[in-house]
Amino acid sequence: MDGERWRCGGLSWGRGAPELRWARGTETRTSRLAHAQEIAFRAAGVRRCAGARGHVCPLGAAVPGRSTGGQCPECARLDRAHSVAADTVADDPRPFRVYLAWFGPGLVKVGITAEERGTARLLEQGAVVFCWLGRGPLMAARRTEELLRAALGVPDRIPYARKRAVRPALPAAADERAAEVVKLYARAVELPGWPEALERTALEVVDHVRVFGLDRAVPPGPAGGGPSALRVVRELVDGGCVAGRLVAAAGPDLLLGGHDGRMTVLDTRLLSGWELVAADPRTAPTVPVEELPTGVQDGLF
User: Running DSSP on this structure, what letter comes out for residue 175?
Assistant: First the structure.
């Protein structure tokens, strides 16, 4: 039965390092990923809905291979109905933090996350640099987020493809990567209208380049360029293989170095709901990929 198989639940950063989640019925487990680890698997059977809020999808619904959500419409609606990020929850008693996150030159957003989650939300989003702005009750955090979004001209959401596209242009120096966040922080704390319930946080810039392995993956700076050739996995299919040595992991993305000398970008949101079985690590991808020619930068890892 499908419920007796271990199925992938995608990537987690909950403990500060990339881990693949697995579920079999109500059982769960994780497997941590490490730099230079060989990763090789074959998708088997039919991709099933990952469920919602820790519960198995009652329909066991099939999910399209290109869906990054990995859920059927009913489970997606249930998740969104209880989502702080979607502004559908107003009575969460936990303390929250407001942050500024930088993903690359000119790409900054403001957001909120539950304090108990630590930096997990920033790692999951692929934030290269971030800083906290303040902490307090949920509604005060939301009002501050809206104030900063309007006053600073920064969004509260950024499409993931845009985050991935700016990574090849990351500055080499940490202070250069931090510069936009430092400037916006200075403007933010001087703004009038902060809710009294929100406590401002002293400036401390956190850089995730080494955590993600981006210093190993793509030489920083405009002259660095990227790997000579890349391919991006667009979906998994029954029997399709993905393999390579883990070079870097940022947000949901894994960058895998193949035995053929090429690089493969795998968005692990595409793994959710699949049964994955071991494959030959020397196998080239046998799933639909987009081949990116030498020198192409936009849309790379």
Answer: H
- The encoded tokens of residue 206 equal 């956190």
Structure-token pair, residue 152: 């600073």
Any idea which residue has 């020397």 for tokens?
Answer: 282
Rounded distance, CA 32 to CA 269, Å? 16
Sign of the dihedral through C-alpha 281, 33, 101, 183: negative
What's the pLDDT tens digit per position in 267-301?
999 999 999 999 998 888 899 998 765 544 444 45
Residue 273: partners with Cβ closer than 8 Å, 6 or more residues away: 7, 8, 47, 48, 49, 50, 63, 70
Contact 194, 144 (CB under 8 A): yes
Cβ atoms of 299 and 292 within 8 Å: the answer is: yes
- Identify the pLDDT of residue 293: 56
First vs last C-alpha separation in the chain: 37
Q: How far is CA 70 from the centre of its chain?
A: 14
> Rounded to the nearest 5 degrees, what angle is found at the Cα of 245, between the Cα atoms of 123 and 248?
25
Compute the distance between CA of residue 275 and CA of residue 5 in angstroms, rounded to an integer.
7
